[in-house]
Amino acid sequence: MPVTEDQLSPLIIQSIELREICLPLIHFFETSFGRTTERRIVLARVTDADGAEGWGECTAGEGPFYSDEWTDSAWSTLCEFLGPMVLGQRVERAADVFGLMRPVRGHRMAKATIETACWDLEARKLGVPLWKHLGGTPREISCGVSIGIQDTPDILLEKIRQEVDAGYQRIKIKIKPGWDVSIVTRVRKEFPHIRLMGDANSAYTLADVPLFKELDGLNLMMLEQPLSHDDIFDHAKLQQQIQTPICLDESIRTPEDATHAIAMGSCKIINVKLGRVGGHSEAKRVEAVARANDIPVWCGGMLESGIGRAHNIAMSTLAGFSLPGDVSASARYWEEDIIEPPVMVSATGTIVAPDASGIGFNLNLPRIDALTVRKQTIAL
Catalytic: which of 111, 125, 172, 174? Predict the structure, then answer.
């Protein structure tokens, strides 16, 4: 039976079940640092002293390219350090779980795997949707899509046309040296009125300022993480020289990073990814910093399965998430997702935040079992 906030007992995690699943993508996804055809995803099911459970997902990639975390490092970190660090510890709320893991430096994607599962568990016990438990507002989330580098420009244009026809409200295309100004120019000529942005995934340097000035004439919503993955200084210099708003992604790992980047003028927009910042509690702090400084934020995607996608939907209901995020339909990525029903996007490019408790979707456990390639339970 659901309980009220006043009746909610302190959280004491009794077990953490880890699974790695292999989930093949319908189409490859290519960025400036490589091509992905299959996702190796770590899932966590946490269970508390009352027998309640919640699910989280690790968003780390298969290699240390987007960040210094990857599937295997996350698995080891969860098994050897974070899991034992959390088990049996008493905290008042899920919001306090991140603090239990502070002795481990970094590894925010691994931390978010456990932390987000605890938020799901707590929302289920309260009998409320996760978005409501996080402090979001009931609304339809505006959705965009991220389209990777393609084999030819014509293929890219056709994929964009498909997504525009499907109703998505913003198109993000990946760029890299040699696949940038000429490609964006073609896209803009073909689609003069769409909300368009470019994502560089740190592929450029300040020596490329002339290139960015060319992009200024193509009416981009934003240019995402053009320079080094851990930089805010050069981004500030670049933003002073171009009109296109810079959006920071990889550089923002903490609320303090957001505070410093905004103070320096390094960006005008921030992409918030649950895994990159360490889970819901830290995401809420980043969102609050940005909102206090009138910096819009949006939810970035990491090719999540339905569990991670459901957590992204909940996060996207927070007030500061005013721009369309990379929270798109399950069917764009997977022949069959691991949640029921799959995430669906309306003809006008929106997702309705679910009313069911927790993440708001049912787990397809037989499918998860079939996809599982390794499993380990950490328990008291």
Answer: 174
174 belongs to the catalytic site? yes
Q: What is the pLDDT of residue 28?
A: 86
- The Cα diameter of the chain in Å comes to 62
pLDDT digits (tens, 9 = 90+) for 219-264: 999 999 999 999 999 999 999 999 999 999 999 999 999 999 999 9
209 and 274 in one domain? yes
DSSP string covering 38-57: EEEEEEEEEEETTS-EEEEE
Which 8-state DSSP code applies to residue 321?
A: B
Same domain, 137 and 214: yes
Question: Does residue 159 share a domain with residue 104?
Answer: no
Candidate list 125, 176, 273, 284, residue with the active-site label: 273
Q: How many other β-carbons are positioned within 10 Å of the β-carbon of residue 76? A: 13
Look at residues 244, 238, 241, 201 and name the one whose alpha carbon lies nearest to residue 220: 244
* DSSP secondary structure letter of residue 17: E
Backbone φ and ψ for 136, nearest 5 degrees, come out as -80, 180
* Cα first-last separation, the chain: 25
Share of the chain above pLDDT 90, in %: 94
- For residue 309, give the nearest of 344, 271, 268, 258 by alpha carbon: 344
Indicate if the pLDDT at residue 343 is higher than 80: yes
pTM of the full structure: 0.96
Range of the domain at 236: 133-362
Nearest one of 350, 8, 66 to 229, comparing CA atoms: 66
Q: Is residue 31 part of a domain?
A: yes
Catalytic-residue membership of 159: no
206 and 353 fall within a common domain? yes
Instruction: State whether 117 and 137 are in the same domain.
Output: no
Domain count of the fold of the chain: 2
